[in-house]
Structure to design on (450 residues):
């Protein structure tokens, strides 16, 4: 009888081991493909990112190249694609229409298409003002072309991750000792010293709703983490890198008329030069209250294209150093898990009283998990403290936040910021309680990934 039990136990053990090896076998191989399309304009265009009355003229050349980039993952069951374009934003309704076009051309489900902008304020406007240009048509076509090229580039890959650190960013909510100032709340949108509203007789202005304004706050907190995903071919040769960092693309202000890839584009330029064979994609994090260390037009800084490039090279060096230290391997679990949900958030009081039939805003959020990597995407400019809470809630080794994605709904700020005042809580469409509602909603989504 003992011999029979031993044989049965041995057979059961072999079956369990076999089943487990099947679950974690590399039959469900993760594949990845990456591509980019140059969208640098050859014509003079209206630029985005700042008030059109402040920067009314057209661009006068470029300093570097801008791109549409796409990174596709495939687990043999479904595909998911991250798309990032080097502009400040798209018209809000365009995100869904473009995703539907991409889906029709590639077969990738709309909810698996994550269309984002790097929030580059030194790029052409992707809206109405340039719609009759050749560049605008090229931009629209680039989305489909780039995703198709990325799909064609799919191959089995090994992946690995690590976190670097960078201080090219700085908190931008500057606390004023005296709220009466000749400087307006945002020198790159409306100013008494430059642009349409320039005057020889400036008046004192009280800061809007509080004592904070846009500026440099070196004592303020930032999220200095640089999230890095390394993707290698099975041979071990580098294939791609995904970089995540929380910082506005605003080192060049509203007085600049040169098209620029901003610091993040120069960062990828540096990384791709230093790591042969690699192609990069940048996804911006929770940067609602974070600017680069210097911003043209603020705190006395002037627009300087070379300094912007050097800022990118600085963080690029960190990316290269960390990338070279990462060990890649076949993922234990190559399955792509994806959860999508609209988190319904209340509008601020001023908007509610204007339309009592529409008192909320649906915020589309997508959470994706591949092995130890988790991405959370959102169409808002999220304050970094909220972003850090969401990162912690992922319970993953490598969390990535993807802002300005699948829509453009403006600032989502902390509840505390409303009492402090300043530009972002003045500009937001959301009620103060939104922070808690949004974080709770994302946390519930993340649970469904496991």
């Amino acid at each position: 009888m003992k011999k029979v039990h031993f044989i049965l136990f041995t057979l059961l053990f072999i079956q369990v081991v076999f089943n487990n090896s099947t679950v974690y076998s590399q039959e469900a191989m993760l594949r990845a493909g990456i591509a980019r399309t140059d969208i640098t304009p050859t014509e003079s265009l209206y630029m985005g990112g700042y008030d059109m009355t402040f920067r009314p003229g057209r661009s006068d050349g470029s300093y570097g190249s801008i791109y549409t980039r796409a990174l596709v993952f495939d687990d043999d069951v479904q595909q998911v694609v991250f798309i990032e374009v080097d502009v400040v934003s798209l018209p809000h309704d365009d995100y869904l229409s473009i995703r539907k076009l991409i889906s029709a051309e590639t077969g990738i489900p709309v909810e698996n298409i994550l269309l984002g902008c790097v929030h580059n304020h030194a790029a052409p406007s992707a809206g109405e003002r340039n719609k009759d240009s050749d560049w605008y048509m090229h931009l629209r076509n680039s989305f489909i072309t780039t995703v198709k090229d990325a799909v064609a580039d799919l191959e089995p890959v090994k992946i690995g991750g690590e976190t670097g650190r960078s201080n090219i960013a700085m908190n931008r909510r500057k606390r004023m000792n005296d709220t009466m100032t000749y400087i307006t709340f945002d020198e790159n949108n409306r100013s008494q010293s430059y642009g349409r509203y320039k005057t020889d007789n400036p008046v004192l202005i009280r800061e809007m709703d509080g004592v904070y304004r846009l500026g440099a706050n070196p004592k303020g907190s930032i999220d200095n983490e640089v999230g890095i995903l390394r993707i290698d071919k099975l041979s071990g040769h580098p294939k791609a890198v995904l970089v995540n960092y929380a910082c506005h693309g605003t080192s060049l202000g509203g007085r600049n008329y040169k098209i620029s890839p901003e610091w993040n584009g120069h960062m990828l330029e540096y990384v791709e030069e230093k790591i042969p064979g690699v192609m990069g994609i940048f996804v911006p994090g929770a940067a609602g209250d974070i600017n680069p260390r210097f911003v043209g037009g603020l705190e006395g800084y002037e627009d300087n294209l070379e300094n912007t490039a050097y800022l990118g090279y600085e963080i690029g060096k960190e990316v290269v150093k960390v990338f070279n230290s990462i060990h890649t391997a076949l993922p234990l679990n190559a399955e792509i898990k994806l959860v999508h949900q609209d988190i319904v958030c209340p509008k601020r009081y001023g908007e509610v009283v204007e339309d009592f039939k529409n008192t909320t805003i649906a915020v589309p959020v997508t959470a994706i998990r591949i092995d130890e990597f988790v991405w959370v995407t959102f169409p808002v400019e999220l304050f970094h403290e909220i972003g850090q809470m969401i990162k912690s809630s992922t319970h993953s080794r490598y969390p990535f936040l993807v802002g300005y994605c699948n829509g453009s709904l403006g600032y989502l700020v902390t509840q505390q910021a409303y009492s402090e005042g300043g530009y972002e809580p003045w500009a937001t469409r959301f009620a103060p309680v939104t922070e808690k509602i949004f974080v709770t909603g994302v946390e519930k989504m993340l649970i469904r990934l496991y």
User: Anything to note?
Assistant: Residues 31-169+219-325 form one domain. DSSP finds ten helices and 19 strands in the chain.
